[in-house]
Amino acid sequence: MRSSRLPADLAPNRLTDAVARRRAGGSGLIDLTESNPTRAGLAYPSDLLAPLADAAGLAYAPQPFGLESARAAVVADYARRDIATRLDRVCLAASTSEAYAWLFKLLCDPGDRVLVPRPSYPLFEHLTALECVEASPYELDLHGHWRIDVDALARQVDERTKAVLVVSPNNPTGSVIDRAELDALADVCAAHDLVLIGDEVFADYRLDGKAPAPSVIQQEHAVAVSLGGLSKSVGLPQVKVAWMAVGGPAEAAARVMAGLEIIADTFLSVSTPAQVALPELLIRGGVVRDEIRARTARNLAALIAAVAAAPAVTLLPPAGGWCAVLQVPSIRHEEALVLTLVEEDGVLVHPGYFFDFPREAFVVVSLIVAPDDFDIGLARVLARVTEAA
Ligand SMILES: Cc1ncc(COP(=O)(O)O)c(C=O)c1O
To answer: Which of 270, 246, 239 lies closest to 106 in space, CA to CA?
Structure first.
């Protein structure tokens, strides 16, 4: 009844069970994993989605890549970040997840491989498996800050490798690629005919005050696809609009667009009202982006202060994104720790193994959680992890 694209075991894990029990018992749970901006107590303007009611959305005239007005708005949004792209190099999708699925259909035959960072976003496992593609992890090494060992990555490339994924800022490490890393990755991709896919959904959220990270399309050497979307850029995941911007050598980029056109035309998945609204949503949503920036800055400052008073705990300072990683004493396994935190302390955090950290013990917290919950939850976590240290 089920294909091997899905996990063989669909049973909930122990942590999911413990969370369900805690919630059913009514004893309350502070969720420090909350990454849904619409559940983080942010003050969205109540008429923010008014552009979705534009009467232009009553007409259906599908375009594979999306309405020209919507794509022009994406070009303008890249320009806001000083990144040049063109109308004929932009393709809309309903989500970044869908964009990944389309790119894997475009680039990979069943059994082909894409190189993905580790630690990183756990959904890659499913996104690749659902397209019969193998996710082959390359390590992010922690030397004061997280770095890609580009030489090691290059050694992993074989004849079945079709793409390299970079996530910048990365979830959960908060690491961003710098210009030298981008150039080195582009060299590897150009040398082996690979497409460089840059997940840049958190590009607007730099946490260390430095200049924004470069986009994968700010180089001309390798074919590259930059991914972005409303989910993170303006905190509107429910509107379901994301985009790809293709860059690199002109002929190869045009070939990518020609392939994407067939796929996008097959699905036509972005609703017309959302496309019509996109130009205004990208502008009006700036206030939500500012709120999220203020929230992450506030929570990161609180985290830095709290960790300073807990010498057994180390904060791995994030350069960008929406979360932070704490290295905690490994006196108990991560799973036992997170279960205790749920069952005894009423706090949910992500264990490092959820993101495939190479060793124990790490916990990951979201920085967009409402401040009161963040402070209370964090205090409980720090009390628990330092109790026997
Ligand atoms: C790195 C990364 N990419 C993509 C997404 C999802 O974006 P979308 O809602 O557009 O599918 C997330 C969501 O948390 C993410 O962390």
So the answer is: 246
| Residue keyed to tokens 């060793």 | 359
Ligand 1 proximity of 201 Cβ (cutoff 6 Å): yes
Q: How far is the CA of 100 from the centre of ligand 1 (A)?
A: 10
145 φ, ψ (degrees, to nearest 5): -135, 165
pTM > 0.85: yes or no = yes
Domains of the chain: 14-43+287-386 (3.90.1150.10), 50-284 (3.40.640.10)
The pLDDT tens digits along the chain (389 residues) read: 899 999 988 898 999 999 999 999 988 999 999 999 999 999 999 999 999 999 999 999 999 999 999 999 999 999 999 999 999 999 999 999 999 999 999 999 999 999 999 999 999 999 999 999 999 999 999 887 899 999 999 999 999 999 999 999 999 999 999 999 999 999 999 999 999 999 999 999 999 999 999 999 999 999 999 999 999 999 999 999 999 999 999 999 999 999 999 999 999 999 999 999 999 999 999 999 999 999 999 999 999 999 999 999 999 999 999 999 999 999 889 999 999 999 999 999 999 999 999 889 999 999 999 999 999 999 999 999 998 65
Answer whether 237 contacts ligand 1 (Cβ < 6 A). Answer: yes
